[in-house]
Amino acid sequence: MSSWTIKKRIIAGFCTVLVPLTLGAIVTFFIFGHIGRIATVARVATESDRFMAERHADHLSWIHHLEHAMLIGAGFTGQTDPRLCALGKWMYGEGAEAARSDSRLARMIEQLRAPHERLHRSAVKINELRSRQASDEAVAVYRSETVPALTEATQSMALLRKHFHDVSIEQGGEAAATIRSTQLSMAAGGFLVVALCVSIALLVSRGITRTLARLSDDLRVTSSEMAGAVAQVATSSQSLAQGASEQAASLEETSSAAEEIRSMAQRNTASLGDASNMTVQADAVVTRTQTSLGQLQLAMDLINTSSEKVARIIRVIDEISFQTNILALNAAVEAARAGEAGLGFAVVAEEVRNLAQRCAQAARDTSVLIEESTTRAAAGKATVGEVTAEVLAIGEESAKIRTLVEQVSRASKDQLKGVEQVARTIAQMQQVTQSTAAGSEQGAAASEELSAQAEHLSSAVAKLNQLIGVSA
Predict the structure, then answer these.
(1) CA–CA dist 141, 468 (Å, integer)
(2) So what's the pLDDT on residue 252?
(3) What's the pLDDT at 461?
(4) CB neighbour class for 215 (10 Å; exposed up to 12, middle 13-18, buried from 19)
């Protein structure tokens, strides 16, 4: 408990006092609730006693009206249903409800119910007999049934009134005894609570005084030590402020250089991006060129094949010309043998021979041209193959160059990210340094203010010692 704060001690003392007060209030609440219930029972019993007296008077008046009707020879107009009169409604309503928790009351109501019903049924019989002009029989019923039933009902109502009266007196006495015991208990509890409050107040005040005395000593020592520490803090704050200002200037220059490097890295990244795009385009051109060369080589192969086919056809034509020439010579020999009859045929044979010679010459010339074309096509095919190989080599080199450019581009982007991170870090360092410089200046000002507050603290400690009665 010695380590408790003043707030905890005051709260503990208050709770210690509050607990018995709360318990007393709760007990008192239940006692007064019990007294209220007793008073309610007594009030209900008193009202029930008065109710029974009124119902007894009602039934006496009811008998008087019945006797008067018999004397004047008129019909009885009073209530003849035992459940509809005021007493009957009570017995079958509120009385029955109250009898559920009171067995004695239930027995009394049961005793009253039978004569009460006979009393009202006798009035019904009397009315029936009077209606048949049987006055003597009606008087006999009155004497034999009505009067005994009224007597028994009156006795039962008297017992009920006595019961209600006894309950009222009993509950009143119990309430009075409870009130007297409650008064004594409250007086004793109040005395104990006052004594407890005084004891707790003395204990709490003594503990608080001791605690404040120790705190006063600690504050006095702390204030003297704080005065020396404040001077050192002021000197350190001034030195820190000066160093922070110089560091802020250096960081500002470094930030400018980092910004220039970042701009250069951005330009390099943009240039590498353009170069990468150009290599992609060049790779596409090389790919298309390879496709065109392949188609050209295929066309050269087709031309070479066609030239060979034409050469074979020319050789066939040459052979046909040779055979035609021989046939023409044979025809000329046969025409010469025929003499004048074969002159016309000789002329035709000569023309055919001339035509065969021209066809042979044309076939030889065409064959020479085809051989030259075939030779040139073969040379072109070889050249196309060499060009295709070179283009393939260029494509491979272009792919390598593109890979290198992409690697350099990624490295440049990473470098740009690193430079931007460095720039942000420098900017943050610059802000921190500026904040440190401002904080150092504020710390220097705060140290001076703290020195003044230390003097005020010493004065406050002296006043606290004077307040709690402890000498410095």
Answers:
(1) 101
(2) 74
(3) 67
(4) middle
The pLDDT assigned to 285 comes to 73
Residue 73, pLDDT score: 75
What pLDDT, on the 0 to 100 scale, is given for residue 350? 80
Q: How far apart are CA 282 and CA 398, in angstroms?
A: 7
Token duo for residue 62:
């009811």
**Could you name the CATH architecture of 252-430?**
Orthogonal Bundle (1.10)
CB-CB contact of 48 with 164 (8 Å): yes
| Closest by CA position to 346, among listed 359, 358, 330, 357 | 330
pLDDT along the chain (472 residues), means of 10: 65 73 78 75 80 87 86 80 88 86 86 89 86 83 89 90 85 76 76 76 71 69 68 67 69 73 74 73 76 77 78 80 80 76 74 80 81 78 76 75 76 75 76 72 71 73 64 58
Geometric angle at alpha carbon 371, from 367 and 377, rounded to 5° = 140
Written in H, E and C, the secondary structure of the chain is CCCCCHHHHHHHHHHHHHHHHHHHHHHHHHHHHHHHHHHHHHHHHHHHHHHHHHHHHHHHHHHHHHHHHHHHCCCCCCCCCCCCCHHHHHHHCHHHHHHCCCHHHHHHHHHHHHHHHHHHHHHHHHHHHHHCCCHHHHHHHHHHHHHHHHHHHHHHHHHHHHHHHHHHHHHHHHHHHHHHHHHHHHHHHHHHHHHHHHHHHHHHHHHHHHHHHHHHHHHHHHHHHHHHHHHHHHHHHHHHHHHHHHHHHHHHHHHHHHHHHHHHHHHHHHHHHHHHHHHHHHHHHHHHHHHHHHHHHHHHHHHHHHHHHHHHHHHHHHHHHHHHHHHHHHHHHHHHHHHHHHHHHHHHHHHHHHHHHHHHHHHHHHHHHHHHHHHHHHHHHHHHHHHHHHHHHHHHHHHHHHHHHHHHHHHHHHHHHHHHHHHHHHHHHHHHHHHHHHHHHHHHHHHHHHHHHHHHHHHHHHHHHHHHCCCC
List the structure tokens of 45: 């019993």
Cα-flanking dihedrals φ and ψ of residue 290, to 5°? Answer: -60, -40
Kindly state the tokens that stand for 439.
């904080």
